[in-house]
Design brief:
By secondary structure, this protein is of the alpha/beta class. It is globular, with a radius of gyration of 20 Å. It binds N,N,N-trimethyl-histidine.
């Protein structure tokens, strides 16, 4: 083993017993409401993450490949514009889009540190090990945690940082929490830091709806998987076959909504919570919102958080946007 590689990686976990309670609390909160709802983060257990990776390859799901194309085209410009020596990535996952940015920083000769923040320690450690091998001189400081709660645990900045929040995940926040999250993010940023944010754009509703109702049924399996999560983690007895996947574009709110619809009247017991939940025939449980942006709304949301939009990079078909903003 190379000692130099070993010392280049440091991983700190901030997840504890409190985090195991969040699923239980979210279920108790969400399933006792008149309009049943679950936060989308529980879609991503091992199986859910696998299904999400499969979604990213679907012909209908243009987001991932479009964002990658934008990053490939603009990475050098982004690095030149920000002068970043350090990349802080929220929800880094397998970090494959990250490489495009790390490559550009490496070529510019500025790359010093990568700070991935992710809830999965296994994924984070695997990515860290590969990256230090591939980028000589790179150090990785991994933060195992929830980017909604652990932003206070980022290491002291070395110099100018680029914060990346990619994939359109910001769209999962409802408008109020979205601005609150951006504001909290802005508060941990230094005056010379920049935020690189990936957002899906408002477009033809048919194109949007197809992306969440793929013909291979992968999104349906991804959505239904959350019921398996509740069955396994909380001893619930959802009959997954008696729910169906629903996804539509809410034209007024300009977001995609994913729901699970009970095909018939049913009663569910959640053992760990001693909770009984009834579903009326066709009653729906909301599992995700995925907001779509116009450049104007994006600018406004950033401004409300104290950030100024400086660049908006998009693809020729204007499907997706990667924006750069800062405090200057
Ligand atoms: C990972 C939140 C960006 O909203 O498009 C994909 C998740 N849901 N298909 C999205 C998702 C259904 C995805 N984000």
């Amino acid at each position: 083993m190379e000692p130099s590689l070993e010392s280049a990686v440091e991983v700190r976990s901030y997840l504890g017993p409190a985090d195991e309670r969040t699923l239980a609390e979210d279920v108790l909160d969400g399933l006792t409401r008149p309009l049943k709802e679950l936060p989308p983060k529980h879609l991503y257990d091992a199986r859910g993450s696998e299904l999400f990776d499969a979604i990213c390859e679907l012909p209908e799901y243009y987001q991932t490949r479009t964002e990658r194309l934008i990053l490939r085209t603009e990475a050098d410009a982004i690095v030149a514009r920000t002068g970043a020596v350090e990349l802080v990535e929220l929800g880094s996952g397998s970090a494959d889009k990250t490489r495009v940015l790390l490559d550009a920083m490496n070529h510019a000769g500025t790359l010093r540190r990568y700070v991935p923040v992710d809830v999965s320690e296994t994924t984070l450690r695997a990515a860290a090990a590969t990256l230090v091998g591939d980028y000589p001189g790179l150090s990785v400081h991994g933060v195992v945690g929830d980017f909604e709660r652990h932003l206070g645990h980022l290491p002291e900045p070395l110099h100018r940082r680029l914060f990346a929040f990619l994939g359109g995940t910001i769209g999962n926040f409802p408008p109020g929490s979205r601005r609150r999250f951006l504001r909290r993010l802005r508060k941990v940023m230094s005056p010379d830091d920049h935020l690189l944010l990936g957002t899906d754009l408002v477009k033809d509703p048919q194109v949007l709806e197809a992306a969440y109702n793929d013909s291979a049924g992968v999104t349906a399996r991804f959505n239904l998987n959350v019921l398996h999560v509740l069955n396994r983690e909380l001893g619930a007895n959802f009959d997954v076959d008696r729910f169906e996947h629903v996804a539509f574009f809410d034209r007024k709110r300009e977001w995609i909504e994913m729901r699970l619809r009970a095909t018939e009247q049913q009663h569910v017991r959640v053992q760990a919570l001693e909770l009984d939940v009834d579903f009326a025939p066709r009653e729906e449980l909301r599992t995700e919102i995925s907001a779509k942006f116009t450049p104007e709304r994006l600018r406004e949301d950033l401004r409300a958080a104290g950030l100024r939009l400086t660049e908006l990079y998009t693809d020729p078909d204007e499907l997706f946007a990667v924006s750069l903003s800062g405090q200057g």
